[in-house]
Every structure is written in C-alpha cells, then in structure tokens.
Fold:
Amino acid sequence: MTIGRRKFSSSIMLVPLLWTPSLHAQVARTPVMGWSSWNYYTCKVNDAMIRAQADALVSSGLAAAGYKYVIVDDCWQGERDATGKMHPNSKFPDMGALSAYVHHKGLKFGIYSSPGPKTCAGFEGSLGHEEQDAATYGEWGIDWLKYDLCTFQGDLAAQIAAYRKMHDALAKTGREIVYALCQYGNGRVWHWGASVGGNQWRTSRDITDSYERMSLNGFGENGLERFAGPGHWNDPDMLEIGNGKMSRDEYLTHMSLWCLLAAPLLAGNDLTTMKPETLAILANPEVIALDQDALGVQGHRVSQEGPLEVWVKPLADGSQAVGLFNRGESPMATTANFEQMGLPGEASVRDLWARRELGRFTGSFSAEVPTHGVVLVRIRDRHQSGGSH
Ligand code: GLA
Structure:
C-alpha cells in the first residue's frame, strides 16, 4: 500500500466512516428526571395538556427538585408531506412552539418515535426517514428521544443497526439529545445499549399502576448493576406514583427502589391535580439524592429471606443507601447486616422518609417494615461527615 501518497485522500474518505459522533458522553451523567405523558394520558394527549403539565412541574416545585424533562410519548404524529417531512397531528398544531414554551420555563423537551414503520399506537414511525426525522427534531429543539421498537421487523443485528442509525442521525443535529431505547429489554440490551449511543434502555415490559408489575420491573433489575453508569442507565420504566392504584407504602417502595436502582425518574401522574402526599414522595430531596448521586452506581440486592429483601447502593461520600423491603402480605421485621454491606461494626443510620437520625447501631440495623413497604436509610460509619442533609 502506498500509504504515504494516498494518506490525504483516504483519511478524508475515512472520516465519515470512523467518526461516529457520540451524544451519550455529555448527557444524562445522572439519571434523567422529568415527566412523561404516557402513564397518565396514554393517547389522549394534546398540546394544552403538555403546557399545563409543564406549568405544574414548575409551580409544584418538582422542576426545582430536578425534574426537568417534559416528554410527549406516543400519539403526537400526523402525516408526512410530499418531501417526506413528518408533521404533528391536529392535537399538536405547532411542535416548535410547544418546545419553545417548555424551554421558556427552563425545562427540556422530549418526543417519541419508532424504528419501525408504525409506533406502538399505530402512528407513523421513522423507518426509512431517520435522518429526516432527526433533522426535524433538531428544528423543533428536541432534547430527548424515546425510540420504541414496536413494529420493527428484523433480527437482533438489524435491531442494533436501527438503534445506531437513529443515534448517528441525532448526533448530526448538533444538539445534546438524550437517547432512550425502548425495546422491553430483549436481546439483553444492557450488553449493547451504550454502544449504540443509548443513554438509557428499558429492561422490562411496560409498567402498570400495580404493585405486582412495578415489583417485577424494579426488583427484576438485580444483577444488571454492572451495565449502568454515568451516561448509560438501566430503565425499569416510568413512575406510576400518584396514579391512584397503589397504596402509599407501595408508592414509597416504587420511589425508593427506582432511586436505589439509579433509574430515570419520569413522573407519570397528573401534576395539575397532584395531592400533597404524592408530591412528598416525588420531591423528597434526600431520596432523590440517592438516584442522582455522582458515583452513579446502581444498587443491588445483598440479602433475601422469603419476601424480605435488603438492597444497597454505594454513594459518592462513602455512605450507603440501604432499602429494607417487605414484599410480603403482613408487616415483618427486617435486618440489614453491616458486614454483608461492607460496613464497619458501628455506624449511624438516618431514615430518609422520616428524615431523622435513628442513632448509632452495632453490627446490624433492624426495622419493622409494613406490608409491600420499605424502610429506606442512609448508613455512615463514624469517619464520614454529615453529608448533604
Ligand atoms: C410501548 C412502550 C410504552 C409507551 C407505548 C406507546 O408500549 O413500552 O412505554 O411508549 O408503547 O404506544
């Protein structure tokens, strides 16, 4: 090979092949927080509803607590014009204006599509129009894209290529766009999600507002912790807190578990009619701090005894977040063993839902945990400072 003489021209040719601009290095260094339309509205969503939720995100204090992304899930799509450009349907008269409205409130704006010909709700997908759609999202000022497998046909290699293709198209917009893969955890997406530029990937099927489904999605992530980290997170799906079908203890379990998992926190309730107890669960700063901890380590289960589980998440200041969960049908005493968690013999324990110091404990910490409930604590040894609270 005459490398010397051909160097200049071949390097020009190679640049587009080798340079795959990556979005995921910059965004979602901690799990994304926000609100998404699907769990509450499903397809019955429109521009005015999104504006009202954006307003409520700010007025409730949730935006200040970290919830910044306002996301329109499925059902916004209309038709393509003669040039193939995608337009929203009549419920979203001007997507650029909606995006500007959301941005004007200091928030970020997200949207939804599919690598298939149709979305899960039967609207137009992006197949064959990836670059064009990404450019349109760029014009609209999109900061997030959920890309939902739905009707995509093809083997795993084809699926991986399709996800990469949209990532590369998004990168060309020059915007920092969070890229959320949604294909329900098939093909062990945690092995390849980050390599196609995914900032998060769903690990399971759709959540519902039920303790059983929420538990399957959340507790089912044990063992996947090594695949998560800053910029690339496992996603057990959006929150159902406040949608009304779970008990308070079950919603406390939901929030505690998602934060121990370093999961994306996308509220999925109606923020305009939210009860104070819902806000208190979504906005507890000491619990959010676990999710958003700079170390970016996903928690895991350290012990299980029948329905009782102890989960631990190491934190940047050397302390440990510990969740004592009772998945059983009656209240039960649960014990977190310090040695099992790599803690010294004596440590101080703070209850993060009660927001009070429980004192110093030797060897272990035990608590009575309600049915389907949790006791969530932060445990420090004596050499650590008081931390963020
Ligand atoms: C799938 C996804 C959901 C939601 C719907 C929209 O079921 O998993 O989160 O986006 O599609 O149709």
Summary: The CA atoms of residues 300 and 311 lie 5 Å apart. Residues 1-21 have pLDDT under 50 and may be disordered. The domain at 300-381 is CATH 2.60.40.1180 (Immunoglobulin-like).
